[in-house]
Amino acid sequence: MNLMFLTQVGGILKPFAWIFGIVMNAIYEFVSLLNVHSIAVCVIIFTFVTKMLMLPLTIKQQKSTKLSSQMNPEIMKIQEKYKGKKDEASMRKQQAEMQAVYEKYGTTPMSGCLPLLISLPIMFALYRVIYAIPAYVNDIYAMYGTIADQVLNVQGYGQAMLSFIQENGIVVNKLKPAIDVVTGADGITYNLITLTKDNLIDIMYQFNTDAWDIFKNVNLADAESWLNKIDLTKVIQNYSLGVSLESIQAVDTAAFTSLIPNIEDTVTEIIHVNSFLGGLNILNAPGWSFPGIIIPLLAALSQFVQSKVAMAGNKQQNNVDNPAAQSMKVMNYVMPIMSMFFCAMLPICVGLYWVASAVFGTIQTVFINRYMDKVNVEDLMEANAEKAAKKRAKRGITTGSQMAEVARTSTKSIQTEEKKFQNAYDYKNNASSGKNSNKGAKAGEYKRSEVSYSASSISANANLLRNNYQKQNQDSEDNSEK
């Protein structure tokens, strides 16, 4: 059962699909000038073009990966340092130290995901275009439109087509048949189920070779002819039409029979345009028999090679101490196998896109890895830091003050708590030592040993955390003595 759409996709995907639709239409018109009429060839070229259009995002993703390979060991050390520490002070210090590492590399925890998030709607739009070629390619629309125009002239075509797709397991999304009231030659009023031209193209674009063979068998003398097996009761129930069986005008089966010779050449042309590898139809599922099985096998192999090439450019993938890297290794074996099974059940055009995408992606990755090998990490860090500084300047944040602000924010509640215990702590400290522990320190400074810290510095805020921890321990000891 295939689910495809003629109507161009709407919502957030609409502008992406519209652009890629223009690209696909231009590619088909170009290859037609070379006397090549093949949607499969267009899908391959289309995949190459879209890969090139997305190249800036791919390079950005690779740069992020290179930075992550250098940064992740430092992040892991900090996580190991605070492993098992669940108190608020430790968690906030861990956050501050990790943020300092991100500042050092001029990146953020989400920077590596951003290119992927941007590419997701693009990928979904690509699938919509591939699944709905007639909605974007004018010549393909015209082919199916030629048949649709003739079907529209047949009395009762609506109920006939709806019955046909039900019996053959074809589903069309958002298909809403209408009911027209007509007067027959006998003067009696009837209900007529109608579909638009686009509805018919929607339906017929899903016909694979077997479906076309069944559709063309309209010999009324043949008991297996689908025209002899129209079940209007199921149609009424499935679409909740709210009309009685007796009120629906009968299908003109004779007109359908005379229609087939007129569309024979167009059907042959459609099958030729959708053919691939000497007879396969790109709308058919390849299955597990030869030569269709070639597509699932190529999909699995090409994706496996792509993942291995991508891993070769990421040293962290070979780190046995990195759980994420080990999980990714497992996925690099599992995903190609899953792709093979999915590809065997989905239309060949989808598998063809996966293969072409993996092949072009592998070639891109090889050249990008060679380029990235020549790029110095320090240069990337410096460039990222400059970009981050410009963004902070636009938001009115002074360069170099962000970490201090993070520390102040993180210790705000601790400072508030410290004020509550400050008097009792000072009194207890004075009573035991006979002098002020901070004597000699200037106003607005925090003193530890012989070192004084400015109140706006990270060290001062870190010192607050230390003092608070010591006070809490001292209070606990005093309470236990009592």
Helical proportion?
A: 55-70%
Beta-strand residue percentage = 5-15%
Looking at the structure, what is the overall shape? elongated
Question: What is the rounded Rg?
Answer: 34 Å
Please summarize what this structure is:
The chain has 19 helices and eight strands. It has about 475 residues and is mostly helical. Mean pLDDT is about 80; it is low at about 1-5 and about 400-455.
Give me some keywords for this one.
two-stranded parallel sheet, 482 residues, 65% helix, elongated, mainly alpha, two-stranded antiparallel ribbon
Give an overview in words.
The protein has 482 residues and is mainly alpha-helical. It has 19 helices and 8 strands. The strands form 4 sheets. A two-stranded parallel ribbon has the order 1-2. A two-stranded antiparallel sheet has the order 3-4. Strands 5-6 form a two-stranded antiparallel ribbon. A hairpin with a 5-residue loop joins β3 and β4. α3 crosses α5, α7 packs across α9 and α13 runs antiparallel to α14. The protein is elongated, with a radius of gyration of 34 Å. The N and C termini lie far apart (78 Å). The N terminus is likely disordered.
SSE blueprint:
Layout: E1 3-4, H1 14-33, H2 39-53, H3 55-81, H4 88-105, H5 114-131, H6 133-136, H7 138-152, H8 157-167, E2 171-172, E3 178-183, E4 189-194, H9 197-204, H10 209-216, H11 232-239, H12 253-273, E5 275-276, E6 280-281, H13 294-312, H14 323-345, H15 348-373, H16 377-394, H17 402-410, H18 412-433, E7 445-448, E8 451-454, H19 458-481
Parallel strand pairs: 1-2
Antiparallel strand pairs: 3-4, 5-6, 7-8
